[in-house]
Automatic annotation (TrEMBL):
<dbReference type="Pfam" id="PF05462">
    <property type="entry name" value="Dicty_CAR"/>
</dbReference>
<feature type="transmembrane region" description="Helical">
    <location>
        <begin position="125"/>
        <end position="141"/>
    </location>
</feature>
<feature type="transmembrane region" description="Helical">
    <location>
        <begin position="18"/>
        <end position="42"/>
    </location>
</feature>
<keyword id="KW-0675">Receptor</keyword>
<dbReference type="InterPro" id="IPR022340">
    <property type="entry name" value="GPCR_GCR1_put"/>
</dbReference>
<protein>
    <recommendedName>
        <fullName>G-protein coupled receptors family 2 profile 2 domain-containing protein</fullName>
    </recommendedName>
</protein>
<keyword id="KW-0472">Membrane</keyword>
<feature type="transmembrane region" description="Helical">
    <location>
        <begin position="247"/>
        <end position="271"/>
    </location>
</feature>
<keyword id="KW-0812">Transmembrane</keyword>
<dbReference type="GO" id="GO:0005886">
    <property type="term" value="C:plasma membrane"/>
</dbReference>
<keyword id="KW-0297">G-protein coupled receptor</keyword>
<dbReference type="InterPro" id="IPR017981">
    <property type="entry name" value="GPCR_2-like_7TM"/>
</dbReference>
<keyword id="KW-1133">Transmembrane helix</keyword>
<dbReference type="GO" id="GO:0007189">
    <property type="term" value="P:adenylate cyclase-activating G protein-coupled receptor signaling pathway"/>
</dbReference>
<feature type="transmembrane region" description="Helical">
    <location>
        <begin position="218"/>
        <end position="235"/>
    </location>
</feature>
<dbReference type="GO" id="GO:0004930">
    <property type="term" value="F:G protein-coupled receptor activity"/>
</dbReference>
<feature type="transmembrane region" description="Helical">
    <location>
        <begin position="161"/>
        <end position="185"/>
    </location>
</feature>
Length: 326
């Protein structure tokens, strides 16, 4: 998002057109992924639990951030201001919601507290309030001029410093907090499992597989923000060192990875077992039986997999009986 709002100095018109196309395509993918999670929360009642409610707010922030990144030319009047401020607001809210998810998991697993649902109002105050404050502060030092499809440009060192302090400082604070929190959660689960399992080799192998599954599920959450904003941070630092001399490939990576954050979040946080189960149950109700034969086993509901296995076993038993009779 930051490069989308600031990239331009030292780039030709053709370069800016390419960056615009990349931003629109990546933001569209993020918008589709985030909208899918929002619709799942609204349509499936079994998903309206507190744990998934935080994921819903995360997806909603990503959806609105992506929407304002792909709107048309905002170079006239109020739309220009609205696009710049709302994009910054919802993008900050997005990575702040990831910290609430990490806090909830840490408080439940490590602290063994059950009062996380009572903190929902505090979460809203923290996320929306912080996003509003940094967005208002961000307006200081900005020159609202038209640059392609973007409004905000920082012409001086003051504007660039304010941008860095109001976006990248809280961003990397959130990354460090998420990484430290998930490290504690994974270590806690690992110690608890080692205390609970037996001493046999088979149990140890199961324990290792379970630990690997936990690492794959939670360990890469902080990596999403790092992958989305590492190039943006490098681009901002380079802009401090050599102002007005943009590197094209760095700007492309900056815009592309930042605009894909919503898609990454929707896949990592949203497509969990509860969502897949809810989708499978609806497919099982509305899709005819013959269509499941053409689907891969990973996309079939468990009931159809069990039925298919039973049919295979029956056919094998029939073949054995015919061979015995012969």
């Amino acid at each position: 998002m930051s490069a989308v709002l600031t990239a331009g100095g030292g780039l030709t018109a053709g370069d800016r057109s390419i960056i615009t196309a990349i931003n629109t395509g990546a933001s569209s993918l993020s918008f589709v992924g985030s909208t899918f999670i929002v619709l799942c929360y609204c349509l499936f009642k079994e998903l309206r639990k507190f744990s998934f409610k935080l994921v819903f707010y995360l997806a909603l922030s990503d959806m609105l951030c992506s929407f304002f990144l792909i709107v048309g030319d905002p170079s006239k009047g109020f739309i220009c201001y609205a696009q710049g401020y709302t994009t910054h607001f919802f993008c900050v809210a997005s990575f702040l919601w990831t910290t609430t998810i990490a806090f909830t998991l840490h408080r439940t697993v490590v602290k063994h507290k059950t009062d996380v649902e009572d903190l929902e109002a505090m979460f809203h105050l923290y996320v929306w309030g912080t996003s509003l404050v940094v967005t208002v502060i961000r307006s200081f030092g900005n020159n609202h001029s038209h640059l392609g499809p973007w409004c905000w440009t920082q012409t001086g060192l003051k504007g660039k410093a304010v941008h860095f302090l109001t976006f990248y400082a809280p961003l990397w604070g959130a990354i460090l907090y998420n990484g430290f929190t998930y490290f504690q959660v994974i270590r806690m689960l690992r110690n608890a499992r080692r205390m609970a399992v037996g001493m046999s080799d088979r149990v140890d192998q199961f324990d290792n597989r379970a630990e690997l599954k936990v690492l794959n599920r939670w360990g890469y959450y902080p990596l999403i923000l790092i992958g989305s904003w590492a190039f943006g941070t490098i681009n901002r630092i380079h802009d401090f060192i050599e102002p007005g001399h943009k590197i094209f490939w760095l700007s492309v990576l900056d815009v592309g990875t930042a605009a894909l954050m919503g898609l990454f979040n929707s896949i990592a946080y949203g497509l969990n077992s509860s969502v897949r189960r809810a989708i499978h149950e609806r497919l099982e109700l509305f899709l005819p039986e013959r269509l499941y034969r053409w689907l891969p086993s990973n996309f079939r509901p468990k009931s159809h997999l069990i039925l298919h296995q039973q049919q295979q076993q029956r056919s094998e038993m029939v073949s054995l009986k015919t061979e015995d009779q012969q």
